[in-house]
Amino acid sequence: MDPITLGIIVAIALIALMAIGTPIAFALGGVSLLALIYDRGLSELTYFGETFFDRIAEFGFVAIPMFILMGAAVASSPTGRDLYRSLDLWMGKLPGGLAVSNIGACSIFAALSGSSPATCAAIGKMGIPEMRMRGYPDGVAAGCIAAGGTLGILIPPSVTMIIYGISTETSIGRLFIAGVVPGFMLAGLFMIWTMIACKLAGGYNNPMAESVERLKQNVKQNVDTNLKALVRVLPFLGVVAGILFALYGGVATPSEAAGVGAFLCLALAILIYRMWQLGPIKLIMRDSLRESVMIMLVIATAEVFAYALSSMFITQTVAAAIADLEINRWALMGVINLFLLVAGFFLPPVAVIVMTAPILLPIILAANFDPYWFAVILTINLEIGLITPPVGLNLFIIKGIAPDISLRDILMGSLPYALCMVLGILLLCLFPGIALWLPNLIMG
């Protein structure tokens, strides 16, 4: 059987398994195992086990559970609530100020947690009920949180950037820096659309539902409360700044910085928010362990899947076919973007990166594109997948937070933000310096 036909059969089998609800890791592992046995016989079972464990035994992967622990400590504390309060103080006067405040809170919380689902859940639990109570349309309330949550995989420190760096053997510190300006550019585009949407929906210049008289009476108390909330958040922002300084300054490796950051965030959550009881700490550890194991299983089985495709010459054949396309390099980039976009519709970001980054990187380099610029492009494509069906993880998180909002309203509220991300990709293609200026300035 020729490699292309075999590849189509493998892809159909993988999609079928995921369509019936098989977890990603088990679908990848099962298809890989059957493909290897078909192609090489039962003797390949030995290589299956070796490939599975060799990949996740790399020291660089230690950073992943540490950053996840750091994010879980922040997500399990009232940090999101305090961020929400303090940003509402400064942005509440803008058109649609409360919705804009939520996007700002998502941007900062993304840097603290490094996780899109955690950002979406932490800010959404407070922001969506508050916006709906103050008269914001359901689509605006749900869409701005779903979109803001996607920033968690772009703004550093980002777990997906770590995985891309390990998969492609590129500098994780440089990847982190490359995501800073594009991340805040996307946040700015989201805020602009939110203000436009709120204007179209009827204003919301003053998001407060209380009367003017009551606002005047409570303004000092509100300012004091929000300033105290901001003071409680500052130490966590200091930890993130310290981690980034340690990485960019060559003081520590990503694993070392992640370990120190996890310890400090856990200690701050305990000290600042009085989380002395065993229950909250146990919950943090449980959530961290669960997510870490899930990600490591996906990485391990995706590596086996990549090995199976390579051993059957599927990867090489597809890569050669793409490389042989006699088209402009920007047309090639358009094809790759379309492929990543479709992949993001069905697979989580971790799986897409581990499976595709090593294959696409040689093609990207041959076309004379920068690998760090491409990492940002890839990540934004995967962000779009988080708010578009059929998988759309953030859509379902919003549905869980606000079950009385229809999935259609959530989707329709999120789609304009997906177009903002497409605009962000176009801007990055026109002006690559958006992603490359800061890394070149800091690291040369």
From TrEMBL:
It is found in: Cell inner membrane. The keyword Cell membrane applies. The chain crosses the membrane at residues 6-38, 59-78, 98-123, 135-155, 175-198, 229-251, 257-276, 297-323, 335-365, 372-396, 416-438. Its main location: membrane. Keywords: Cell inner membrane, Cell membrane, Membrane, Transmembrane, Transmembrane helix, Transport. Part of the tripartite ATP-independent periplasmic (TRAP) transport system. The complex comprises the extracytoplasmic solute receptor protein and the two transmembrane proteins. This is TRAP transporter large permease protein. It comes from Halomonas campaniensis.
